[in-house]
Amino acid sequence: MVITDWPAAERPREKLLKHGAKVLSDAELLAIFLRVEVTGKSAVDLARDSFKVFGSLNGIFAATANQISEVHGMSSSKYVQLQAIFGMSRRALAEQLKENDGLNSPKQVRYYLCLKLGGLSREVFTVLFSDAQNCVVATEEMFSGTLTQTSVYPREVVKRVLHLNAAYVIFAHNHPSGVTQQSRAMKCSQPH
Question: What is the CATH class of 105-189?
Answer without folding.
Answer: alpha beta
